[in-house]
Each structure stands twice: as structure tokens, then as C-alpha cells.
Design goal:
- About 50% of the residues lie in helices and about 25% in strands.
- The strands form 2 sheets. Strands 3, 4, 5, 6, 7, 8, 9, 10 and 11 form a 9-stranded mixed beta sheet that branches.
- It contains 11 helices and 11 strands.
- Helix 1 packs across helix 3 and helix 1 packs across helix 4.
- The protein is α/β, with parallel strands linked by helices and about 300 residues long.
- The protein folds into 2 domains: about 90 residues, Arc Repressor Mutant, subunit A (Orthogonal Bundle); about 200 residues, D-Maltodextrin-Binding Protein, domain 2 (3-Layer(aba) Sandwich), CATH 3.40.190.
Length: about 300
């Protein structure tokens, strides 16, 4: 039976039954009244049933018509739900879910995402903040930007993006040498590495540990002391002459990598974001070099 039915005729029947009017159904479907009447007549002929009782200007369903209308309501509702799920799935597919270390995300990446959106308006980058190991499947993550301070395993695809750059900064309006320096507990070796590299800057200075780089930066901005941070975290503050460089910018031996559960070549979104990210971090590195050059002049 179904192969003899026109789905279009069932749709026309549904609209006429719903609004009890050929005229209104034709308006809703953007067709002529004669087209609607033709489809109804064809459907009744195929089924061998009378579906409507025509009384004056009103159409009423017969008992057979009521059965078919109830069936159409259920079927079309299921189709609507299915189409909605497909649209939502398509929207999710267009979103690239990126996990990024919190302070890097807040201080460096977010201010640049508007530029990426202008370049590639066809998909969104949804940002999650986290550090360390990432469970791509459980967390629903497409990409993760991480430093290579942990082992992510051979099953994870990785692309090097940029070297980490560090420096010591202090509030520019503080003319005196800092008596206190804030160090993030998220990098246990940071203070010892800095003391080894720049022993002169560390003499007579009190070291205070805070949980995250963001807190160290805020303490520095509040005038409470200096801090040793990633240069990416304070690039804007140095450009706007809010913070001053106490030490040169230096590479600490670690690097940022973009991680993925699948090959980058399998998803054009990942390739576009990888190349854009690498280019943006390279621009920052070139600016760090100019900062060092200016300090030596």
C-alpha cells in the first residue's frame, strides 16, 4: 500500500484536517487551492475511502479520516524530531571543541578568537579550560592545547605549535626593586630554574607561591610584587606599558602542542585552526624577540 501513496498527498491531507480548510492549507503550503483539492482526491482514490465530509464552507473528518489524521500527527511529529536532531548534530559538527590551559585561554587565546571567526565564519570554536591529560571522547573535545610537561601517549596525534617563553615582570609604576615575587604552584620547578638563570634578580627577594599563573598576574597588577610567568600571558600588559620586564624573555625548554584523538588531515577544521594558531603564536614570539632587542639597546 505505502508504495502507492504519495507522501505529498498525506502532507496536504494533514494540513487540511488540521485547519479544516482547503484555503488555509493552501496558504500554509504556498500552493493553490486546486493543487490541494487534487491531492486530496488522489489520496481518497488510492485508499478507496472518503476522508472528509464537505459541509458548506467547512470540512469535517469522517471516522476513517480521523484515524488517518491521528496516524499522520504521530508520523509527522517523529519526522520533526528526527530533523531537529539532525540539525543539532550538524550544528555540533560545525563546532570545534578546544580544551586549553586556563590562563593561556584567558590572557592570550580569547582576545584573538574574534579574528579567527572573521577568517572562518563557517564554524565556531567552543572553548573549554583545563590542563594536563585529556579524555577526548568522554569530554567531547576535538583538540587540546597543552605544554609537553606530561606524557599523552602514542595513541594521541600531536603537532608542535610554539616554544614556551618566560620572563619576570613587575608593575611599571613601581620604580623600586620588588621585595616579593609570586610563583605559580602549577610549575614546581619554575622558581629554581629562574634562580639558576638569573641569580642577581633573586637576591634578597621573598618568594610566594600561588595556585595559578592568573593569581600571580593579578597580584603583580595589584602592586604586591613581581612574578615569573609565560610571556604569552602578559603580552598585552607589556604592550600597553602596564607591566615592565624585570628579566629578558627566555625559552624554558618546554613547548606547546596541539593534541587530537584523530589525524589532523581527517578534519579540515583542525588543519585550519592548527595553522592559524601556529601563525599567531609565531607572531607573539617575534614580538618577544623585539622586546629583548629593545632592552639590550
Amino acid at each position: 500500500m505505502i508504495e502507492r501513496l504519495s507522501l505529498n498527498s498525506l502532507k496536504f491531507f494533514y494540513y487540511v484536517a488540521r485547519y479544516e480548510s482547503v484555503t488555509i492549507a493552501a496558504e500554509k503550503l504556498f500552493v493553490t487551492q486546486s493543487a490541494v483539492s487534487k491531492q486530496l482526491k488522489s489520496l481518497e482514490q488510492v485508499l478507496g475511502l472518503v476522508l472528509f465530509v464537505r459541509e458548506a464552507r467547512k470540512l469535517s473528518l469522517t471516522s476513517e479520516g480521523e484515524v488517518l489524521f491521528e496516524c499522520c500527527q504521530q508520523v509527522f511529529q517523529q519526522i520533526d524530531q528526527c530533523l531537529l536532531q539532525l540539525q543539532q548534530h550538524s550544528k555540533v559538527q560545525n563546532n570545534l571543541i578546544l580544551s586549553c590551559e586556563p590562563t593561556l585561554a584567558m590572557k592570550w587565546l580569547i582576545p584573538r578568537l574574534a579574528q579567527f571567526k572573521r577568517l572562518y565564519p563557517e564554524f565556531e570554536v567552543s572553548l573549554l579550560t583545563a590542563g594536563g591529560a585529556v579524555d577526548f571522547k568522554q569530554q567531547g573535545v576535538d583538540l587540546a592545547l597543552r605544554r609537553d610537561d606530561f606524557v599523552w601517549g602514542e595513541a594521541v596525534y600531536s603537532e608542535k605549535i610554539a616554544d614556551e617563553h618566560m620572563l619576570c615582570v613587575n608593575l611599571k609604576k613601581n620604580k623600586e626593586s620588588p621585595a616579593n615575587i609570586f610563583i605559580s604552584a602549577s610549575r614546581p620547578k619554575l622558581w629554581q630554574q629562574f634562580k639558576t638563570r638569573y641569580p642577581a634578580q633573586c637576591r634578597g627577594i621573598k618568594q610566594t607561591s600561588l595556585e595559578h599563573f592568573y593569581l600571580c598576574i593579578e597580584a603583580c597588577l595589584a602592586g604586591l610584587g613581581a612574578t615569573v610567568v609565560s610571556a604569552y600571558h602578559v603580552e598585552r600588559e607589556i604592550k600597553y606599558q602596564i607591566l615592565d620586564c624585570v628579566s629578558p624573555v627566555y625559552r624554558d625548554g618546554s613547548s606547546y602542542f596541539l593534541l587530537s584523538a584523530g589525524a589532523f588531515e581527517e578534519d579540515v577544521r583542525k588543519l585550519l585552526f592548527r595553522d592559524w594558531l601556529r601563525d599567531e603564536m609565531n607572531k607573539s614570539q617575534q614580538w618577544f624577540d623585539r622586546v629583548n632587542d629593545n632592552k639590550t639597546e
